[in-house]
Every structure is written in C-alpha cells, then in structure tokens.
Amino acid sequence: MTIRFDKLGVVIAVIVAYAASAAPFATFRANRIVPGEARSILDALPAVTGPLLLAIVLIAALIALLKTPLILRLAASVAALAALALLIGVAGRFLTPEGNTFARISPASGFWLLIFAFTLLLADVLTRLNLSPGARIGVLVVATAAIGLLLVSGSWSSLSILKEYANRADSFWAEGSKHVTLALGSLAAAAIAGLPLGILCHRVEKLRAGVLNVLNIIQTIPSIALFGLLIAPLGWVATHVPGAASLGIRGIGTAPAFVALFLYSLLPVVANTVVGLAGVPRAANDAARGMGMTERQRLFGVEFPLAFPVILTAIRIVLVQNIGLATIAALIGGGGFGVFVFQGVGQTAMDLVLLGAIPTVALAFAAAIILDAVIEMTSTKRREAQPA
C-alpha cells in the first residue's frame, strides 16, 4: 500500500516536530522585565501532562502529514488547539512558585509555533469543507465563546499577559473603546464622503483620473509621516477657529489620527465604487430604462445594489486596514491598543506588547471573516443579474 503525504501536512509536521522537540514551550521570569528561562514541554508541565501533550500534538501532526479524511483532520486540529489552550494555563500554575506574585510565565516560541501549525491545519480543513457564510460566522462565534470561557474560568490567570491585564483592566477597555471608535468612525466618515465621490467619478470621466491620482498619492505617505504632517494644520485650526478646541480638534490626540485614517480609507472606497458601478450589466440598466425609471431611480434601485458586493469589499479592506493603523495613533496621543504596544516596547515587556497586539489582530481577523461572509451572501444578487 502506497503512503500518500499531504503537501501542507508536510509543512505542518516539520513545524510541529521543531516546536515540540527544540523550541521552548514556556518562559519563566523572576519578574516582568528580566530575561527569561526557557522551559520545554516536559519541563513546563507536570509529570503526566507533558508526555500527554506531546502525544496529542505528534498524533495530530501525523494525521496532518498523511492524506486523511477531512473530518479526522478537523478533529485533530481542534483537539490539538484545545489541549494547547488548556495546558498553557497549567504550565503557568506549575511554574509559578507558591506565594510568588512577581514571577512571570509566558508562552514561548514553541507554543506559538504549535498554535500556528494547527490553526493552519484548521483553516485548510474549513476551506476544503467549503462552509456556507453562516457556518463560518458560527465557527467564529464558537471559537470566541471558547476563548471567553477560558478567560472567565481563570485558567490563564497565572500567565503574564493576564497579570498585565489585571493591572490595567480599566485602561484596557477604555483604550479598546478608543481603538474601535477610531477604526469604525473613520470608516463611516470615509463611506459618507467616498461613496458620493465615487459615484461622481463614475459619471464624470474627466474628474476620475485626477481624484484617484490624488488619493493614490495620499496612500503612499507613511502613516507616521501623515500623522506628523497633520499636527501643524490641526493645531492652527484649534488655535484660530472658535469652538474647534472644544470639539477635540488639536495638533495631537484623536483628531490627527482620525483624519489620517479617514484619508487612507478614501482610496479603496472611491475606487471600488467606480469599479462596482462600471461592472453593472448594461442589460440591467437597459431594462430599468425600459421600465421608465429615472436616472436617480436606476442608481439607487439597480446600479448601487448590484455594485454593493464590490463596494463592500472596499469596506472590508478599509476596516481591517484601520484596525491595524489605529495602533500607530498611540504615538501622537490618539489612544487605542497601541498604548500598550509602545509602553511594552519602552519597558522591554513583551507581554505588555502582546496585550495590545493580540486584541488588534483578533479584531481584524473577526472583521475579515464577518465581512467576507456578508460579501459572499450579497454577491448572489450580482450573479443573478448577469445576462445568460
């Protein structure tokens, strides 16, 4: 009998083999800023638990390596991820000395590599299963609920990142609110301004090239540079325009961050609006004209609904982009999760960096999954409108 290997499984098996045998599973530090001591899986976990975790990840890697049924691969990836999530908390409690409140236990490179490998396997399985949009959102909800349950249960409370959170719980949610407000607010403003501008560019060809070229130039300016360029004009507005300062407009803080994110958001919204409207089938417009619909009625009743999936793709791009870029806003006092990232960099405290980075990545990932599902659902109308 010929043994057949899965190409992706080979990559996963190599990662798992290295992570389980050579890379550290957890790091012990006497306090939050001193260099850490690497611990392997067998050293980081109690006597029975360490070999059990090794067995689980190696069996799951073997299942990934061979061409096995999708259901078996799904079960292997979920089992490995669940075991890793549960046992990293056990490692935190096992490695923390009794009564010691200064020690810090952090997941090390081996843990993150194992998480990456089995998440890759899970993503591959879900892609091959070709889940419906609703099912993909359901998987996201289940994963979010499982992580929330682990957090609420206290299973990870001995880990350093949760200790950093405990020390900053109030500021974490305040900065999280600022981060989401910046990302969603700038997106809403870009949609309000960009959609009419995109419609105008679609209708007036002479205007299109000039507007898109200007927006392309803005897009090439590095984010930190754009934040800096906005400090002087917004500072002038705050000083010379009555009531501007009371509205929160000033050279540093939320205002320049909001304006910069708004400017970055315009190009995808305007460009995709133009592309979406240009892609509306001529037959649909001809049918609308034949029914006696006015130009305005055709725009909102025919063209815009058919172009909506393409426009929604721009919304997805902008939202994911803004969630990431909002992190940089902390450099100019704009707040957000970037506050913890840059505090952690300044204090050489990687767990504080992760406290800001992980929620940012999670928000962007969730936004991408949800909007991808919505785009797929709304694309049905566009496909149905195509001429036979």
In terms of topology, how is this protein built?
Layout: H1 7-21, E1 26-29, E2 37-39, H2 41-44, H3 49-65, H4 70-95, E3 104-107, H5 109-129, H6 133-153, H7 160-167, H8 169-203, H9 205-220, H10 223-240, H11 254-278, H12 282-290, H13 295-325, H14 338-347, H15 350-385
Antiparallel strand pairs: 1-2, 1-3
Describe the model:
- With 388 residues, this protein is mainly α.
- It contains 15 helices and three strands.
- α7 (160-167) crosses α15, α12 (282-290) packs antiparallel against α13 and α13 packs antiparallel against α15.
Q: Rg to the nearest angstrom?
A: 25 Å
What is the helix tally?
Answer: 15
What global shape is seen? flat
Q: Assign the structural class, choosing from mainly alpha, mainly beta, alpha/beta, alpha+beta, or little secondary structure.
A: mainly alpha
What percentage of the residues does DSSP assign to strands (E)?
under 5%
Helix content: over 70%
Q: Could you give the order of strands across the largest sheet?
A: 2-1-3
Largest sheet: 3 strands, antiparallel
* Oligomerization category of the chains in this entry: single chain
**First and last CA, distance:** 48 Å
Number of strands: 3
Low-pLDDT stretches: none
H/E series: HEEHHHEHHHHHHHHHHH
Mean pLDDT: 86
